[in-house]
Amino acid sequence: MLAIWRSLYSFVAIPLLWMVIRFLGLFHAKVRRGIAGRKGLFDNLQQQVSRLGAGRRVWVHSSSMGEFEQAKPIIASLKQRMPGVKVVVTFFSPSGYENSKKYQLADVISYIPFDTRRDAQKFLDIVQPDVAVMVRYDIWPNHIWELRRRGIPTLIANATMRRQTERRIPFVSNFHKHVYDAIDVILTVSKADADTFRLFGLTRPLVEVIGDTRFDQVKIRSLEARKHSIIPAPVLLGRKVFVVGSSWPEDEEVILSVFTDLGRIIPDILMIIVPHEPTLRHLEDLEAQMQGQASSIRFSALNEYHGEQIIIVDSIGILLTLYSYAHVAFIGGSFKQNVHNVLEAAVYGIPVLFGPKHRNSQEPLMLVDKGGGFIVNDARELEQTLRNLLEDETARRTAGGRAARFVEAHVGATDRVLAHLEPFLTSPPTSRPQP
What we know:
This protein has helices spanning 2-24, 29-37, 41-50, 65-81, 94-100, 117-127, 141-149, 172-180, 191-198, 213-225, 233-236, 249-265, 280-290, 319-323, 343-346, 363-369, 379-391, 393-409, 413-421; strands spanning 57-62, 86-91, 108-111, 131-135, 154-159, 185-188, 206-209, 240-247, 269-275, 296-298, 310-312, 328-331, 352-354, 373-375. By secondary structure, it is α/β, with parallel strands linked by helices. The chain has two domains: 41-212 and 413-425, Rossmann fold (3-Layer(aba) Sandwich), CATH 3.40.50.11720; 224-409, 3-Layer(aba) Sandwich (Rossmann fold), CATH 3.40.50.2000. The strands form two sheets. Strands 3-2-1-4-5-6-7 form a seven-stranded parallel beta sheet, sandwiched between helices. A seven-stranded parallel beta sheet has the order 10-11-9-8-12-13-14, sandwiched between helices. α4 crosses α19 (413-421) and α6 crosses α7 (141-149). The relative contact order is 0.10. The mean pLDDT is 93.
C-alpha cells in the first residue's frame, strides 16, 4: 500500500499542488517570494554545507517563524550540551526564512525544497543529516519517506493533532498512517494529541507526551527582555499600564471604544498599543480614530512625551519587553480570526485578556482554567474585566500570580526532547563524502 500512496502522491498530488502554488503566485506576494526564494536553492545549500567541517549534523525543519520559536530552545540547549553539533535549519514559508536568516546558532539556513521525490533525495544527498527534527506539524511525505529509506532517525517535536482533523477522514487517514509510520519518535504537546496520533493505528513510532517548548522559549526570552529598558521611567510613573499586543483593526475597534470611557474613570491609565502590522497607513488610521477621544503619541517620539494616554508602537520586535511594563495585557487577533501568543504576556505574571476567537491554540483556555486569563466577548465585558483588574489590586495580583505559575508549571519540555534526541547523536560520526 505504501508504494501506491507514494506513486499517487508523487505523480498526481505533487504536480497538482505545484500548479496551485504557481497560480496563487499570480495574486499573492508571499507565495511569489517563496517561489523566487527557492531559485538556486541547491547551489546555495551546497556552498553552506561545504563549510561545515566535521561534526554530527541535525536537520531542524519549521514551517514558519512561529514554529521556529519552538525550535530555538531545542537548538540552544543542544548547542550548549554538544558544542560540535552542526545544525541545519529549513523553512517552508518566506516569513520564517526571511526573519531568521541571521539566527546565529544555526550553521546552515535554507528553504526546504519542494516535496518531489527527486528534490528530497538531492536535499539529503547534500545535507547528510544524522538525525532530523520536524517541529509541530509541517511534515513533507517524500522527505520523510526518504529519511526512512536511508535509516536516518526522525522526530517530531511539539507535535499536535486535533481529534477532528481532516487527516483522519476515511482514505486520507490511511495515507497519513503510512507517513507517520516512517517516523521514529512523535513527541506531543498533550495527552489528547498523543491519543489522536494513536487513532491512526501507528505501528512503528514511539508516541510520548513531553509538553510544549514554547513555554521554555518565552521564559528564556522574558529573562533577556527584563534586562532592557525601552520606556523612560517618567512616562510610567504613577500609571496603570495596559498593553495591547499584536492588534488587528477588529481588535482595535473594540478596545478604542472602551478606552474612551475608561480613560475618564481611571485617569492614570496608560495604554500601549502594538499593531500586528505597523504600516504607515495603519498607524495613521489608528490616530484618526483616536482624534478627539484620547491623546496619543508614537513610540518613536517618546522623547517628546507630555502625558498622552496612548502610546502607539511604530517599531517591531519589542512586544515581549513591553509586556514587562504591563499591569494587564490584551492579546490581539482574538476579535479577528485567531488569538496570538498568550504566553508572552503570562510569563510576566500579569492577567491576560483576549476575545472570543481563541480556539486555534490550547493555551488560552488552559490559562483561563487556571485563573490567569479572561475571555471578553464584547466591549462591555472588556470594560468590566479591565476596570476590575485595574481598580482591584488584590484581584490583579492574584490573577497575575496564577498566570505566572501556569507558565512555570509547563517549563521543561526542551529537556524532554533532548532526552530522545541526544541518544541518536552519541555514536561516533561516520565519514561523509564532500557534496
